[in-house]
Specification:
- The complex is a heterodimer of chains A (about 375) and B (about 270).
- Helix content of chain A is about 25%, strand content about 15%.
- Chain A is an alpha+beta fold.
- Chain A has two domains: about 50 residues, no CATH class; about 240 residues, no CATH class.
- In chain A, the strands form three sheets. In chain A, strands 2-11-4-9 form a four-stranded antiparallel sheet.
- Chain A starts with about 45 loop residues before the first strand and ends in an 11-residue tail after the last helix.
- Chain B is mostly helical and about 270 residues long.
- Strand 1 of chain A pairs antiparallel with strand 1 of chain B, so a sheet runs across the interface.
């Protein structure tokens, strides 16, 4: 039975004759109230780490974590993923020429084709990501360099962006929309996938470019100034495009007004800065087919890259990732392995502590307490 | 009269001295030491996580946590629980304190907060910070949500790290407290609930629409806390931070029980209710 301390004994003696109080009149009682709160005797639970609580807890945690870990590990192993690095570092790589001869101002886009072979068909929805390495989107000055008011459609911020955007705040004496270093470094490679039939014909794989950003980002955080119905070219008059962009923000997707301007989903995905220097961002979705054929059948494919984004100068790497998804997200065996490890360590520790408790644990006798 | 006015404690009869020393004095020493150790632990842990993150953010001093969290951490999320512990904590009740005056000895020997104790607390913080950063880091490395969208972005990672921190620090406090009154329970669970309430309200649509630049984390709580792997990461991190402490304390009680432990066990065994 857990001890709940409730001291019913009256512990104060009578009040001595009041010192300093003279004669008649009401004697003010300076005694603190004899309540449980003020006399430090609130009823309480006093847990102690006994063998009866600690050891079962260790075993239970071990027995719960190991199956969770196994479940996570098996799920992660069943996810199919394919990564292709197309930076073009080696001379033999298809994109080597594009990576070498590059500058921001070149008007002729550089194209390269990377063939690859899929040795397992991909079922269900397949998600296409672009990944960057050694790209510090989490650098403090970079993370600050944006104007959320401007991106939320505030007209005042459109013409007078925040000071945090410096040095990407104005260009040609006109405010930049969208301002800041994050927007300026927007990823602008174009990736296309083609399936090569065994008889040699190419079919383009349909890539869906909407539904890649968070709903809250697309509908609340990012709004075009003046609402979505206006002609964006008119709305953005008086602003200039970011320094390293080729098109203006209202030309990002002119065919679809729901994906143009600040609410362009590729832009939104990029603006959600990554936490770590190696990251991947959702680029396109390949929806599953309605009949029983796999989304991406086994065979030869080709990735056509419009190589616009230079990463060689800072030893960065670019890659394209095709991945299926499960309830735990993408392929990441770490959590499964961690759970299995911690569960086993816990169980083992429980056994060790049980042995120690049996051999040494009977020293808590009251006879031992010197008094 | 002048002596009373210039003293820390004053009382009218000599028989009160025993209670002042053996009960309240002892409790006061215990509470102050526990408070200090815990306070250093929670703030060192909070800070060391930034040290580890520095290696991954180009040493640019980018904070792992949301700025509002940093402001409110010491003010709202962890203030009341530790206050509750330092007001109400008792390791042994007053009757037993009278019966075993040698419980007073640790205070005389400066055992509860010495350079060794501080060093152990700092070491514990380093371990906790390693767990609190690297487990979320590895779990979020190149990961995505269950609908394919982003979850390894800075805001979600910050939310994950800060949730892990708050929960771990709460569990550690629960381990440190040895006298759980209703007030303590209210403070601890209330602070944790307050964390979630404040987080969800700061990351809601309304706050962002009204103050876009001050509350940029909109949607983060809704989009990342509905992911099972986020909660599994939080569970793993908290358990991994706390397990060594439990094992170490249990071992100490088994192998080198102090007088407090023996009296405490005795109190529990006899179901003392006086």
């Amino acid at each position: 039975m857990m001890a709940s301390n409730y001291n019913a004994k009256e512990e104060d003696g009578h009040q001595p004759a009041a010192i300093g109080h003279g004669g008649a009149g009401t004697v003010k009682n300076k005694k603190p109230d004899n309540t449980a709160f003020k006399q430090q005797r609130l009823p309480a639970w006093q847990p102690i780490l006994t063998a009866g609580t600690v050891l079962p807890a260790f075993f239970v945690i071990g027995l719960i974590f190991i199956p969770i870990g196994i479940g996570l590990f098996v799920t992660s192993n069943n996810i199919q993923e394919l990564e292709i690095d197309y930076t073009g570092v080696d001379m033999s790589s298809p994109c080597y020429n594009c990576s070498q001869s590059y500058s921001w101002n070149s008007t002729k886009p550089c194209l390269c084709s990377v063939p690859f072979f899929l040795d397992q068909p991909f079922e269900s929805n397949v998600f296409m990501y672009y990944g960057l390495s050694n790209f510090y989107q989490n650098h403090r000055r970079y993370v600050k360099s944006r104007d959320d008011s401007q991106l939320n459609g505030d007209k005042a911020s459109l013409t007078s962006p925040s000071k945090e955007c410096e040095p990407y705040r104005t260009s040609d004496n006109k405010p930049i929309a969208p301002c800041g270093a994050i927007a300026n470094s927007l990823f602008n490679d174009t990736l296309e996938l083609y399936y090569i039939d065994p008889n040699g014909s190419r079919t383009a794989i349909p890539l869906v470019k909407k539904g890649i950003a968070w709903w809250t980002d697309k509908h609340v955080k990012f709004r075009n100034p003046g609402g979505n119905d206006n002609n964006l070219t008119v709305v953005f008059q008086g602003t200039s495009k970011p320094v390293n962009w080729r098109k203006s923000v209202y030309e990002l997707d002119p065919s679809d007004p729901d994906n143009n301007g600040f609410i362009n989903e590729d832009f939104i995905v990029w603006m959600r800065t990554a936490a770590l220097p190696t990251f991947r961002k959702l680029y396109r979705i390949i929806h599953k087919k309605t009949n029983m054929t796999p989304t991406l059948p086994l065979g030869q494919y080709i990735l056509e890259v419009t190589y616009n984004y230079p990463v060689r100068s800072f030893e960065g790497r670019k890659r394209m990732i095709l991945s299926t998804i499960s309830w735990m997200g993408g392929k990441n065996p770490f959590l499964g392995i961690a759970y299995i490890t911690v569960g086993s360590v816990c169980f083992f520790l429980g056994i060790v502590l049980l042995i120690i408790h049996h051999k040494y644990g009977n020293r808590n006798h009251s006879a031992d307490i010197p008094s | 009269m002048q002596a009373v006015l210039s003293s820390d404690y004053s009382f009218a009869q000599f028989r009160f001295l025993e209670r002042l020393l053996l009960v309240h004095g002892r409790w006061s020493y215990l509470r102050m030491c526990k408070f200090l150790r815990y306070f250093f632990y929670k703030n060192f842990t909070f800070t060391f996580v930034h040290f580890w993150y520095a290696f991954f953010c180009g040493f640019s001093a980018q904070t792992v946590y949301d700025e509002w969290f940093i402001t409110l951490y010491n003010l709202v999320y962890t203030a009341l629980p530790v206050l509750g512990m330092s007001l109400f904590d008792q390791d042994v009740n007053d009757t037993w304190s009278f019966q075993h005056p040698n419980l007073y000895v640790p205070g005389q020997l400066n055992q509860y907060f010495s350079k060794t104790a501080f060093f152990k607390c700092a070491l514990h913080s380093v371990y906790s910070s390693v767990v609190l950063f690297f487990i979320p880091y590895a779990a979020m490395y190149d990961t995505v949500r269950d609908d394919g969208r982003d979850i390894a972005d800075y805001q979600s990672f910050a939310l994950l790290a800060q949730t892990c921190l708050v929960i771990t620090v709460c569990i550690q406090l629960c381990l440190d407290m040895s006298y759980w009154t209703a007030v303590n329970q209210f403070f601890v669970w209330g602070s944790l609930a307050m964390y979630f309430v404040v987080t969800f309200s700061m990351y809601s649509n309304g706050t962002h629409i009204n103050f876009p630049a001050s509350f940029p984390f909109i949607g983060t709580a809704r989009n990342s806390l509905n992911q099972p792997n986020v909660w599994l990461t939080i569970l793993l991190t908290s358990i991994l931070c706390v397990l060594p402490v439990v094992a170490y304390r249990f071992l100490l009680i088994q192998l080198r029980p102090t007088i407090n432990d023996k009296v405490g066990t005795l109190t529990n065994h006899t179901g003392f209710c006086s």
